[in-house]
Amino acid sequence: MKTTPAPSLRRRLGYTLFSLAFISCGAVLGGSLYQLIAEVPNWSTNPAQELQAYQQFFRVSHAGYFFQALMPLTILSLGAATALLWNQGAAVRRLLLLVLAGLVLNEVFTLVYFMPRNLVLFVPSPNGVDAETVTTMAREWQMANYPRLAITVGIILGFLRTHRLLSAPTQPATETPAKTWSAAELRPELSH
To answer: Is residue 137 part of a domain?
Structure first.
């Protein structure tokens, strides 16, 4: 009976970092769903007035702190896991890079598109912003949140697929019997 060798320290560490990235990305998805289901309905019907109450309630901390802590952790953990698990095969490597690219794309989208709107919508401004601008930005924020959520779901599906590949038992290399060549195959002119 053959025994499967224990995973190397590199693989165990890589898998641990992969799991940390997976869990933190799941928390990001949960936070995004919470915002969409619980928070957005509370400020989206009349954003100019309702966001003032929202800002007053979240004056010490807001959702941005949650995401600003988890996204870098997710990206750094997955980046390190990708480096450590690089030798686990081409399929795993491709999926890790694809998931990492999705995370980076999501973060760039957030920084470029959402952050300017977040500063207007969720951070109290001493100068104030006119109601029409707030309403427009709130609508844009809401509509763009759906594609960002879809990207996050795609990333989670990529994590699940990668996890399945990483968890599959490794198949021992089987030896293929050496082909025996006949004289006719080696020297076809002799078979006539």
So the answer is: yes
